[in-house]
Write a structure and sequence with these properties.
By secondary structure, this protein is an alpha+beta fold. The chain has one domain. It contains 4 helices and 4 strands. A 4-stranded antiparallel sheet has the order 3-2-1-4, covered by helices on one side. Helix 2 crosses helix 4. The two termini are about 25 Å apart.
């Protein structure tokens, strides 16, 4: 059973390989690591909380695969938590990092890739995550 937000509603989303966001969650669970975590959260990253600090790079990677929009929820510390909206279906592969806290996915602003990736460290993390994902996919 998947615990990420939207898992129950995203089974109808399939990419050209026939993979769903749940399939990508399984694959990414073996890739997310301290390096792919945002630097400000790395000290708190662990295999037990593997989705911590992975939101924007994961959401933009899912946008590459499924299209749709990357939306953002303002966080208490002034940051932004990113998730996906595809064909009316909302899913957030990294929502588990918030534990039992339920986020408000309504009325969120669209996130611009060029603004997020103006940060060279974030772009490098995204490129690394993407390369690792496609390496796994090519093996199958």
């Amino acid at each position: 059973m998947y615990k990420f937000y939207g898992a129950d509603n995203c089974e109808s989303l399939k990419d050209d390989r026939g993979l769903t966001p749940c399939d990508y969650y399984d694959i990414l669970s073996g890739i997310w690591c301290e390096f792919t975590c945002t630097p400000s959260m790395r000290k708190d990253w662990s295999a037990a909380n593997k989705t911590l600090g992975q939101c924007s790079i994961t959401a933009f990677l899912m946008q590459d695969i499924y299209g749709g929009k990357v939306l953002g929820i303002r966080t208490e510390n002034g940051g932004c938590h990113c998730f996906n909206l595809v064909g009316g279906i909302v899913f957030d592969l990294t929502s588990e990092q918030f534990g039992s806290r339920i986020l408000d996915y309504e009325d969120c602003s669209e996130q611009a890739r060029d603004i997020h990736f103006a940060n060279s460290v974030k772009r490098e993390r995204y490129e690394y995550l993407k390369a690792c994902l496609f390496e796994v996919l090519e093996k199958d």
